[in-house]
Amino acid sequence: MPAPATVRRRDRRGHPPRRAVETRVPLSSRIPGFYRLDVAGRRRRLLENANATLPAEGFAAVDPAALPLDVADGMIENVVGIYGLPFAVAVNFVVDDVDVLVPMAIEEPSVVAAASNAARMARPRGFTTVVSAPVMIGQIQVTHVADVDAGAAALRDAAEELVTEARRLVPRLAERGGGPCGFDVRTLARDGADGGVLVAHLHVDCRDAMGANLVNTLCEALAVRVAQLAGGRPGLRILSNLTDGRTVTVRCAIEDAQLACEGAGGAEVRAAIAAASRFAELDPYRAATHNKGIMNGVDAVLVATGQDWRAVEAGAHAYAARSGVYSPLAVWRERDDRAGLVGELTMPLAVGTVGGALHVHPGARLALELAGVS
Questions:
Q1: 242-289 pLDDT, tens per residue?
Q2: Residues whose CB is less than 8 angstroms from the CB of residue 262 and which lie 6 or more positions away in sequence, other chains included
Q3: Of 140, 188, 271, 291, whose CB count within 10 A is highest?
Q4: What's the pLDDT score for residue 56?
Q5: Which among 208, 239, 270 is the end of a domain?
Q6: Are residues 199 and 257 in the same domain?
Q7: The pLDDT value given to residue 195
Q8: Which of 218, 239, 260 marks a domain boundary?
Q9: Is residue 232 part of a domain?
Q10: In a domain, 291, yes or no
Q11: For residue 177, pLDDT beyond 70
Q12: 229-240 tens-digit pLDDT
């Protein structure tokens, strides 16, 4: 058995501990027969073979009574009880050459099994990712602008000043390499019920946070000045959930030998998957179902880890329609040598490892620890 590795763990408020804690060296996300075990057996296997620092209480954080009523009552309004979801772990994942256990919370059967099976097929080469900077967009709407061209020009001329002012409001974030980092403006209407309408976009690098509250606060702080410069009235000032500046791209390649199943050879399965992908690219009715399948897995991870899954859903579907035609988020192509499949998915993904439900929900903290997220 390898010697324990020294790792750093964060406390419930996100602060590092004063001394190191010990855990086992990561082994493998490949756990054959995992689904055949009972719940207690699965927990034992994960504790023996975890690629994360698990809390001393182990899986008590996802026991039926793990979320106390008083904690739930502080999370949202008008609480009358706790509504539970099954909490599972998908296995077999290798992401950027690292074995990863994937926590999922979902009521729909077969989603966890399908994810684990797909990861097993992709395991020889694994998944690779390209992640953009964590930049969110805050919108400041300006209405009743008498001259939209002059107003837009004035805002562009003041862009550096406005970003500098916004950065002064978040000095600690700026010190960590984040904070406001860009500003642009678009013309939405020249005349209408709201007169001339401009919208200014403040770009904010949120670092480890999802950033909704931060972005909203910055937009509120700049709104009056932006409206004055544009010669109009401040309207809405709020983040956009179309986070096309905060995206992730995932790629994988699967050999025919991995695709073969009972009753169908690898070449047949490969051709069928590529054909289904082309169908989704041609037809938005099919693309909606194609993307629903993708979001089955994405949402399950978001729920388990305490993220705002509604925000990610909204951004994903808006991104899928960015060309004016609703399209699939992922595409599959047959390899040039016709010996395997290549898949690629790109989507906005505004998530955080600090803030939100993470500091109060015990299951969300456990999920991040299981996944090895620091």
A1: 999 999 999 999 999 999 999 999 999 999 999 999 999 999 999 999
A2: none
A3: 140
A4: 59
A5: 239
A6: no
A7: 98
A8: 239
A9: yes
A10: yes
A11: yes
A12: 999 999 999 999
Range of the domain at 267: 247-348
Residue type, 277: S
Enter the tokens of residue 264. Answer: 């169908």
The answer to whether residue 73 sits within a structural domain is: yes
